[in-house]
Amino acid sequence: MRIDILSLFPHMFDGPLHESMIGNAVENDLIDVGVTDFRDYTTDKHNHVDDYPYGGGAGMLLQPQPIFDALAAVEEKHPAKGRVILLDPAGYQFNQTVAEDFAKEDHLTFICGHYEGYDERIRSLVTDEVSLGDYVLTGGELGAMVMIDATVRLIPGVLGNSESAPGDSFSSGLLEYPQYTRPADFRGLKVPDILLSGDHGKIDDWRLEQALKRTYERRPDMLKDLKLSGKARQMLADIKADADDL
Q1: FRET partner for 237 with CA separation of 20 to 30 A, picked from 11, 45, 57, 200?
Q2: Distance (Å, rounded) from C-alpha 148 to C-alpha 16?
Q3: Cβ distance 74 to 81 under 8 Å?
Q4: Model pTM?
């Protein structure tokens, strides 16, 4: 996968793109990442990339010319541009399903805004307008980092264990079940006996029940349209009945 990022602050990506999982993916040629400072493409003699909005109003807007020309330069080097993602609070909300969708692409380009917003004509360049959540950040860089991290870890070969990503919270539609490692007894806090039993069928049932319980208690909205097996539906009914008895 090729990932391009258009940003006024390219050095913000120096650490995140060269450490941990993403850094390993770059070193192993699983992804290729480029960061472009679109200020380098402005034709303004003072290197301005923003201006006041027509009609008045607070703040400054990013001008179209630097971003149009920066994206054209990226596309000249990598003609199969794929998805072009505008980081924007007005976009649809990023989630695990979107990450899974992005992970299928060969090329992603993230446009990171700053200041008050974008000239509306910039939107004509993009395939997706995406928000990290219902809050405002100073710029799109942190949002792009989160989306890239969530996406790259789903690319085959990036995670050491091929079962890690499918078992994560949200990938199954449920929050992840509780997990434990050694020691079995830490200061009186013990690992559930079922996990030490060696009975993998019972362990799988326990994990499913715990995932359902945790999701019901913490994120019941996730269960609304989730398709469950007959066993899972019965487990969930029992969990609800136990909660009603409290």
Answers
A1: 200
A2: 10
A3: yes
A4: 0.86
